[in-house]
Amino acid sequence: MNSSELQRVRNWLIDGVWSVEPAVMITDFCERLVAAGLPVWRFGIFIRTLHPEVFGRNFIWRQGEEVEIGTVDFDVLDTPEFARSPLRVVFEQALEVRGRANDPDDKRFPFLDDMRAEGATDYIAVPVPFLDGSIHATSWVTRRPGGFSDDDIASIRALIAPLARVSEIITLRRTAEMLLDTYVGNRAGARILGGQIRRGHNDTMQAAIWLSDLRGFTALSDRLPPETVVQILNHYFDCQVTAILAHGGEVLKFMGDGLLAVFPIDEYVGDAAHVCSRVLEAARESRASVEALAFPVGEAIERFRFGVALHVGNILYGNIGGGNRLDFTCIGPAVNLAARLEKITGRLGRTVVASEGFANICRHDWRELGEFPIAGFSKAQRVYGLADETPALVD
């Protein structure tokens, strides 16, 4: 790879003439390198992520194939494969690792045996430092007899700096998206990244509203260590969040043991009945998951009950707060009513209750539970429960 061809690829990276879609960018990058004379057959880039469950993402390109994209969770750090991987050396020591077909010392890395079995003659893993000091990695493999030349290795090293900057830009964007999705939800995260960051940026939308609460949480918190209570809450929320997301909802907020979620309704499509049906299915799945939840505390097994109120109405959705501390959430009479209805679930010993508006949209085998005065509302509200649910004894 001569210096002019190398500079052309470096300029392409630096000038930003690339797609922000990683797979497209990597394919374009590698094809340019091959056309310029670098004998790369397989290229990989491994980016560590700021995510509570994902250690990193990997992108693998091979000549003539589509880019493979994968994620790796933190459990990989404890595996024998990672302990004997060349990438561990890169991540932990920020060192290059070279492996050639005729080098007997390379037996320490089983991965290189796999590469040789596919015809590889040379391998080099090169650290990719980001500006924040974190170390990521690239791997380069060739099938050319004799492996990479000294000029090839020099070209690879010369490409790392611009590749690192491009990768960091894309990674920071993705990190921002993941953090926003994790802490405020994907719909709110997309709006924030889209520029809705000022107080007063609000939209009105119709949605099914989910508001739930764990029964007996105050007493639970009083008699158990705080660390145990946190573990219980995490398991308890897992029972709901999985079902909510699977059925098209978005979790907006955790409030102690409470959970607020919304299921947007497209007023132009007229899919209210379909959305509410999915909300009810999510409530049934959550009910079954919470009932099955058994948490060992010493020699005892803790069991749990919860209540969820379902309502449908218009909500104000957007930035609310004071000064430069904002919260992306929803408010409105519909949310207030859902919160009041959730309290009624405990009084009635019910797990799922629905407003009259929700029950009228989601035609189901409901049982009318009566009319109840609701604080802050001029009229009593008719409340419905599932016909197949046996009320529990009220605490």
TrEMBL record:
SMART domains: CYCc. Residues 208-342 form the Guanylate cyclase domain. GO terms for biological process: cAMP biosynthetic process; intracellular signal transduction. Coiled coil: none annotated. PROSITE patterns: GUANYLATE_CYCLASE_2 (PS50125). GO terms for molecular function: adenylate cyclase activity. InterPro entries: A/G_cyclase, Adenylyl/Guanylyl_Cyclase_3/4, Nucleotide_cyclase. This is Adenylate/guanylate cyclase domain-containing protein. It comes from Bradyrhizobium frederickii.
